[in-house]
Amino acid sequence: MNVLIFGAAGMLGSDLRATIPAGVTVTGIDIGEADITDRAQVASALEAIRPDWVINAAAYTAVDRAETDRAAAEAVNTVGPRFIAQEAARWNIAVAHFSTDYVFPGTADAPYRESDPVAPINAYGDTKWQGEEAVRASGAHALILRTQWLFGVAGKSFPRLMWERALARVPTRVVDDQRGRPTYTRDLAAATWKLVTQRASGTIHVTNGGAPAAWYDVAREVFARAGADGLLSACSTADYPTPARRPAYSVLSTERLESRLGAPLPEWRDALGRFLDELTASSP
Predict the structure, then answer these.
(1) Using alpha carbons only, how large is the chain's radius of gyration in Å?
(2) Catalytic positions
(3) Residue 66 has pLDDT above 70, yes or no
(4) Domain that holds residue 115
């Protein structure tokens, strides 16, 4: 099976390349080689390679900046996926596309299922939802993977920032009233490959397992690992205003994923520990 990955040098793209299963040949393309917001460049890449699958791991993830630069977010999160899916449909190429928990409003009291109504409360979430819809409307064989709270060794993330602050012994306040499940891109990548090789389609939620957590819970695990517990304190979202509103509860139900794979992904605390192991091993 031949697979083309857009966004191959990013945090998720790097872990997709690090977990390629046997029998799969991958061509990785990043922004310097092809811009997904340029339809001609997308078409040229797909026509030249003619893969069985194209995985779109490119995304605009600056949630707060999207409030004032929606055009940039829309170009990458909506227009790019539309071009990829429409051009893939022309060549009968299957598409895997990543989306976000931020398509939901965060008002639920139980994990969101794939079929639950969406209602984004910020510009980023809306551009991601529009991207989902563009992929669905393309006519391509499409797999849409919603995930959340990503962290990985190859990019910036909340756990990495917390680790850096803990090591530097910087007093830190973190919100304790937004809940989700942290997701390690290494585990997300492995699950993606399993679903792709199964030729799965439709919308599937993919996160690490374990009890839902607040951002503060994640930070507490990191600060404890660094021996800096006393430097961390909790605050509310109201105490830490941001340009973009965040869902208070955006936990994703992974029942459909578990049915496909036969088991949940590892619990997020386990994943966080492995991430920190890898992060420290790669530090000078």
Answers:
(1) 18
(2) 124
(3) yes
(4) 2-155+182-211+251-266
Rounded mean pLDDT, 205-211: 99
Q: What is the pLDDT of residues 131-175, one digit of tens each?
A: 999 999 999 999 999 999 999 999 999 999 999 999 999 999 999
Q: Write down the pLDDT at residue 254.
A: 99
By percentage, how much of the chain surpasses pLDDT 70? Answer: 99
Round to whole Å and give the CA distance between 59 and 21.
24
Tokens matching residue 98: 């990543």
Query: Is the C-alpha dihedral spanning 208, 210, 215, 220 positive or negative?
Result: negative
SS3 182: coil
Nearest-5° Cα angle at 37, 118 to 79? 25
Residue 210 is classified by DSSP as S
CATH code at position 57: 3.40.50.720
**Backbone dihedral angles phi then psi of residue 217, each to the nearest 5 degrees:** -60, -40
- Report residue 263: phi and psi, to 5°: -165, 155
Give me the pLDDT at residue 114, please: 99
